[in-house]
Amino acid sequence: MTRRSNKSAHSRVRADHASEIAEDYVEAIAAILVEKEICRVIDLAREFQVSHVTVNRTISRLQRDEFVTTTPYGPIELTPKGRRLAQASRRRHEIVLRFLKALGVSDATAIQDSEGIEHHVSGETLQAMEKFAAKRLGSGE
Amino acid sequence: MTRRSNKSAHSRVRADHASEIAEDYVEAIAAILVEKEICRVIDLAREFQVSHVTVNRTISRLQRDEFVTTTPYGPIELTPKGRRLAQASRRRHEIVLRFLKALGVSDATAIQDSEGIEHHVSGETLQAMEKFAAKRLGSGE
DNA sequence: ACCGAGATGTAACCAAGGCTACATTTCCAG
DNA sequence: CTGGAAATGTAGCCTTGGTTACATCTCGGT
What is the pTM of this model? Predict the structure, then answer.
């Protein structure tokens, strides 16, 4: 196979689920909520290194899509749907991270790359990564 | 580390290089050029399953950024810069693909996921993948 | 040589993500 | 209890990537 005939493969890459941004946001919100009890616009702005305006509009979309709830000037909370997505994202993220470390790359690289990769791994691949990491690292850390 | 403190990690995810789309396009153009000698808008429209209009505008950007050259109603060609990017993308893509297969996922999944992952692997990770695949599959196929 | 089908181009629209500049709210230190 | 700093909100603009509808060009077959 000299590469070619990917037809629909590409189109599927960008489709489906709540945008990568949505996943990143709910994941971050969940994490912030864990260690700070309250999540505000500014926390996300700092986390993603974007302006508070961008966060604002993104949160609006997330609210529209029922992933979060919030009120003007109020804190940001996750809906059950948002919490579910957050947990799924976190799980993926962690599996990919553990996998990369098991593969032998530096921690910094593993952290970096896992952010980009997590949104593009199918269930099948995720499972393979999990298995691989387990074999290399054992179940613990 | 309970996950957090990724600060700049995310921002770096979307930055740098010619957008993923650019890479996908030059890679596809190069591949088409290999087996058809001529690449036209419609070829890319079919490849990516988007309208010819989208391809048109994307090609304009690629031309603006000097990755391709073309004339109204004419075929699309790669500039040296475009050829370089295409080759680099193809290499990455192939390494990731081989790696996923070595990991043990189905061919279909490997093909699918490699499209999404190729743009998010650092050089370090790519190297690790290459090494892993070589160990599992040997140098040949 | 011509003519229509198919390939391209253009106009105009949409949503997502990003930004700056400016307007409002909040809320705590004094 | 109040003033101002910090957090939020709003308006308006940009780019990318995607669309449909409609205009135009090209080229091969009759």
Answer: 0.87
